[in-house]
TrEMBL record:
The lineage of its organism: Bacteria, Pseudomonadati, Pseudomonadota, Gammaproteobacteria, Oceanospirillales. This is Replication restart protein PriA. Zn(2+) 2 binds at C455, C458, C473, C476. Coiled coil: none annotated. It comes from the Bacteria. Initiates the restart of stalled replication forks, which reloads the replicative helicase on sites other than the origin of replication. Recognizes and binds to abandoned replication forks and remodels them to uncover a helicase loading site. Promotes assembly of the primosome at these replication forks. Component of the replication restart primosome. Its cofactor is Zn(2+). The gene is priA. Binds 2 zinc ions per subunit. It comes from Halomonas koreensis.
C-alpha cells in the first residue's frame, strides 16, 4: 500500500517558452508520495538555462530515444498544483492556441514561477510558559521592555499573534530573549477560515430587495448546483451589486467559494469596502498593488478554501478554488477583461468555460451588455434577468444631443453648454465633463503652412501637454520638447489644435474662478491614492467641476453630480472597427449613468458634429438596449460576431518587407490548405493594421472567419503550426488572436 506507483519513463513538461509543445525529460530523484502526476513543478535544464516547468503528461514513450532525454534537476512539489487551475490552463492554451508552458507561467503567481513552495501559510503565536506565569525573574529588572512584554503576555493566557505583539512596538529580539529564558514560547498554527456559521457570517444585514432584484435572486437560487449562466442586465444603480452580495451569501452559506471579477477601473477601495463591510468572512482581493508574497498568500487562501470570497481583475480568473460555488463577472462588457498582448485571453469567456466545468452558476452583470452576451441572453442560452428600476428615485438620464456645427468652442465647449454648467453650479450641484483625450490638445499645428506634430515612430499625431510642456506620443510614449518654430516653414505661429483634458480644465478654471476644478486622467492620478483623495473631496458635495477621461466613467459613485457633459461623442461613429460603435455607446451610457444618482435628477449633454446620425439618435432617444438590438441585426446581416467567429493573425517587425512577405505567404498557404480540405473558413488579407507603423514596427494582419467555431480552430491550429515551421517567421513577431476585440 505505501509503495508509490512506479515512476513513468517519460515526463512531458510544459516549459516557459513560446513553443506550442511539451518537452520530454526523465524523472529523477524520489517520486512524491502520491506518485508522479500532472501538476507537479520541476526544475529542468532548458538550453543554457534552468527553468521551472510543470509536468503535464506521464508517459512510457517519447518521440526521442529514452537515452537522449535529460533527467530533471529536481522536483519542487510534493503534491500537484490545484487540479481546477490545471484544467483551466490547459483549456486556455488549447482555446487560444497558445504555448502551454507560457500559459501556465502567466497563470501562476510570480513566486511559484520562481520555484517557491506552495504551502499552507501558518501563523505564529507567542504564549507564556508556566515559568513565565510566576514572578518576573530578577534578570528582567535590567530589561524593562522584556518585563513589559512578559506582563502583556500574562494578560493573554491563549497567547498573542506575533503581528499584534510587534504592533505594540515590541521587537522579535525581545520575544527571543524571553524564549531563551524559558518564559515564553512560540507556536505555529494553521490559518483557518474562521467561523462561517450563519449568525457570524454577515457583518451587516442584507438590504430588503425590490421586486426585480428579488426575482433575479430567486432565479439564481434555483440553480446553485449546476451550470446556470445568467445575464444580469440592469441599468446603472439598479442594485446589481446587492444581488451579487446576496448570491454570495447563499454560496458561502453552503460552504462554497465565490469568485468575482471586476474591471480594472472597478476594483476601487470603495467596492472592496462594500464587500468587506457586508461579510465577516475573509474577502481576498487580487489587484496590481499586491506584493509577490501577498499574491501567493491570496492564491493559497483561495486554493485551500480558506478564503470564501475572492475578488479581482482580469487575471484573477486563474485563481484556483477548492470549493467553487459561483462565478460573477461585473461589467462583463468591459474591455479590460481581454488581455491585449501575449496570451490574449478574455477573462469573461474563460469564466463561462470555468463555470461550466465546475457546474456552478455564472452571473454576467452589466448595464450595457456586450453584443455577444446579449445575443446569448436573447436566444435563451443565458437566462436574461432584467433590472429596470433604479434603487434611487430617478430614472437614468436620457442623452440630449447638442449640435456642434458652426458654433464657437472654448476648451471644446460651446456657449449653451457653458450656460448649463453655470446654472448647475449656481444650483449648488456638481458637473462632470467627460473628454476622451488627455493632454492639452490632440496636436500642435502651424497656422501658416498646416504642419502638424507627428511621431517619428508611429503613424500618429503627437499630443500637446502643458503640465509639463512637451509633445508626447500616446502610442509609444516617446516625448519631445516643444518646437519654437514650425520645422517646415519656420513660422512662429504654432497653435494647439482641438482640446484635451488639460485645456478644458484651463478653460473652465478661467470661466468659473470661484469653483474648484478637478482633473482626473492618467496624468493627474499617477500618484497612488490621488484619485481616491480627489473623489473623497468630491463626495463631500460642495459644488465643483470634474474634468476627466474614462477613468471617471465607470464604477464611481458620484451622488452630487447632476449634469454630465460629453465633449465629443463622435469617436466611435465612423470607425473601421466594427465594434467601435458598440464600445462607444457603452461608454456614453456609463458616463450618463453618473448623473443624478442621488436626490436630484440628472441631465446629460452630448456634443456632436453628427447630431443627425441615426445610431446616435437612437441611443439618445431610446437608450443602449434599443441601439444594441439594431446593431445585432446589422451584425447578423453582415455576418459578423456574435453571428460569426473570428481570429486575427497579427504580424509585426521593424522591416516592412519581412512582414509583408510572411503575411502573404502565410495567407496563401492557409487558403491552399482550406481549399484542399474543403474547410468552410474565410481568409482575408493580409492588410495593414489600422495603425500600420507603431513604435517603428510595421503591423499587418490576416483575418480568419467561420460560422462554426470548431472550423475556425482547426484552421487556426494549422496556421500556427505552419508559422512555427517557417524559418522566416522567426524574424517576425506574430500571434493569433482568437475572438479579437479590437481590429
Ligand atoms: P449597480 O451595481 O446596479 O450599479 P448598486 O448595487 O451599486 O447598483 O446599487 C446602487 C445604490 O442603490 C447603492 O447605493 C445601493 O446601496 C442601493 N441599493 C441597491 N439595492 C437596494 C435596495 N434593495 N434597497 C435600497 N437600496 C438599494
Ligand atoms: Zn509651418
Ligand atoms: Zn509613437
Amino acid at each position: 500500500m505505501s509503495d508509490s506507483p512506479p515512476a513513468p519513463a517519460v515526463l512531458g513538461i510544459a516549459v516557459p517558452s513560446p513553443l506550442r509543445r511539451l518537452f520530454d525529460y526523465r524523472p529523477a530523484g524520489a517520486p512524491p508520495a502520491g506518485g508522479w502526476q500532472p501538476g507537479l513543478r520541476v526544475r529542468v535544464p532548458f538550453g543554457r538555462r534552468r527553468v521551472v516547468g510543470v509536468v503535464l503528461e506521464c508517459r512510457e514513450a517519447s518521440d526521442l530515444p529514452l537515452s537522449r532525454l535529460k533527467p530533471i534537476d529536481e522536483r519542487l512539489d510534493e503534491t500537484p498544483l490545484p487540479p481546477d487551475w490545471l484544467w483551466l490552463c490547459r483549456f486556455t492554451a488549447r482555446y487560444y492556441q497558445h504555448a502551454p508552458g507560457d500559459t501556465l507561467h502567466q497563470a501562476m503567481p510570480v513566486l511559484l514561477r520562481q520555484g517557491r513552495a506552495l504551502e499552507p501559510r501558518t501563523r505564529e503565536r507567542w504564549r507564556i510558559t508556566p515559568a513565565g506565569r510566576d514572578e518576573a525573574p530578577a534578570s528582567l529588572t535590567r530589561a524593562p521592555r522584556q518585563a513589559e512584554l512578559l506582563s502583556m503576555l500574562r494578560q493573554h493566557p491563549h497567547g498573542l499573534v506575533t503581528q499584534a505583539i510587534l504592533a505594540q512596538s515590541f521587537t522579535r529580539d525581545q520575544l527571543r530573549a524571553l524564549a531563551a529564558k524559558g518564559l515564553a514560547e512560540r507556536h505555529e498554527e494553521p490559518r483557518t477560515a474562521g467561523d462561517t456559521t450563519s449568525a457570524a457570517r454577515l457583518a451587516e444585514p442584507a438590504l430588503p430587495l425590490n421586486r426585480e432584484q428579488a426575482a433575479a435572486l430567486a432565479a439564481l437560487h434555483e440553480g446553485l448546483d449546476a451550470f446556470h449562466p445568467c445575464l444580469l442586465h440592469g441599468v446603472t444603480g439598479s442594485g446589481k451589486t446587492e444581488v451579487y452580495l446576496q448570491l454570495i451569501e447563499a454560496v458561502v452559506d453552503r460552504g462554497r467559494q465565490a469568485l468575482v471579477l471586476v474591471p480594472e477601473i472597478g476594483l476601487t477601495p470603495q467596492t472592496l469596502a462594500r464587500f468587506r463591510r457586508r461579510f465577516r468572512v475573509p474577502v481576498v482581493a487580487l489587484h496590481s498593488g499586491l506584493t509577490d508574497h501577498e499574491r501567493l498568500d491570496a492564491w493559497e487562501a483561495a486554493a485551500s478554501g480558506r478564503a470564501p470570497i475572492v475578488i479581482g481583475t482580469r487575471s484573477a480568473i486563474f485563481t484556483p478554488l477548492a470549493r467553487p460555488g459561483a462565478i460573477i463577472v461585473d461589467e462583463e462588457h468591459d474591455g479590460s477583461f481581454k488581455q491585449q498582448e501575449g496570451l490574449r485571453y478574455h477573462a469573461r469567456d474563460l469564466a463561462v468555460a470555468r463555470a461550466h466545468h465546475h457546474g456552478v452558476p455564472l452571473v454576467l452583470g452589466s448595464a450595457t451588455p456586450s453584443l455577444e452576451s446579449l445575443q446569448r441572453a436573447l436566444s435563451g442560452d443565458y437566462r436574461h434577468l432584467r433590472l429596470t428600476q433604479r434603487a434611487s428615485r430617478h430614472a437614468p438620464a436620457r442623452l440630449e444631443l447638442v449640435d456642434l456645427r458652426g458654433r464657437p468652442r472654448r476648451g471644446g465647449l460651446i456657449p449653451p453648454v457653458i450656460e448649463a454648467i453655470e446654472a448647475t453650479l449656481t444650483a449648488g450641484h456638481q458637473v462632470l465633463v467627460f473628454i476622451n483625450r488627455r493632454g492639452f490638445a490632440p496636436t500642435l499645428s502651424c497656422h501658416a503652412c498646416g504642419w502638424m506634430a507627428e511621431c517619428d515612430h508611429c503613424d500618429a499625431r503627437l499630443t500637446l501637454h502643458r503640465q509639463p510642456p512637451l509633445l508626447a506620443c500616446h502610442h509609444c510614449d516617446r516625448r519631445r520638447g516643444l518646437p519654437d518654430a514650425c520645422p517646415e516653414c519656420g513660422s512662429g505661429d504654432l497653435r494647439p489644435l482641438g482640446s484635451g483634458t488639460e485645456r478644458t480644465e484651463e478653460t473652465l478654471a478661467e470661466r468659473f474662478p470661484e469653483t474648484p476644478v478637478h482633473r482626473i486622467d492618467r496624468d493627474s492620478t499617477r500618484r497612488r491614492d490621488a484619485l481616491e483623495q480627489t473623489l473623497a473631496e468630491v463626495r463631500r458635495g460642495e459644488p465643483c467641476l470634474l474634468v476627466g477621461t474614462q477613468m471617471l466613467a465607470k464604477g464611481h459613485h458620484l451622488p452630487h453630480v447632476t449634469l454630465v457633459v460629453v465633449v465629443n461623442a463622435d469617436a466611435g461613429l465612423y470607425s473601421s472597427d466594427f465594434r467601435a460603435l458598440e464600445h462607444s455607446a457603452q461608454l456614453l451610457e456609463q458616463v450618463a449613468g453618473r448623473a443624478g444618482r442621488a436626490a436630484h435628477p440628472g441631465r446629460v449633454l452630448v456634443q456632436t458634429l453628427h447630431a443627425d446620425d441615426p445610431n446616435l439618435r437612437l441611443l439618445a432617444a431610446r437608450g443602449y438596449d434599443a441601439l444594441a438590438e439594431r446593431l445585432l441585426e446589422e451584425r447578423r446581416a453582415a455576418a459578423l460576431p456574435p453571428f460569426r467567429f473570428l481570429a486575427l493573425l497579427r504580424l509585426e517587425a521593424p522591416a516592412e518587407e519581412a512582414v509583408n512577405d510572411l503575411g502573404r505567404r502565410a495567407a496563401e498557404a492557409l487558403r491552399a490548405h482550406l481549399d484542399a480540405r474543403g474547410l468552410d473558413v474565410d481568409c482575408l488579407g493580409p492588410v495593414p493594421a489600422p495603425m500600420e507603423r507603431r513604435q517603428n514596427r510595421y503591423h499587418l494582419q490576416v483575418m480568419l472567419g467561420a460560422d462554426r467555431r470548431s472550423r475556425l480552430h482547426e484552421a487556426g491550429a494549422w496556421l500556427v503550426a505552419w508559422l512555427e515551421a517557417d524559418p522566416a517567421a522567426r524574424r517576425v513577431r506574430w500571434s493569433l488572436d482568437i475572438d479579437p476585440q479590437t481590429l
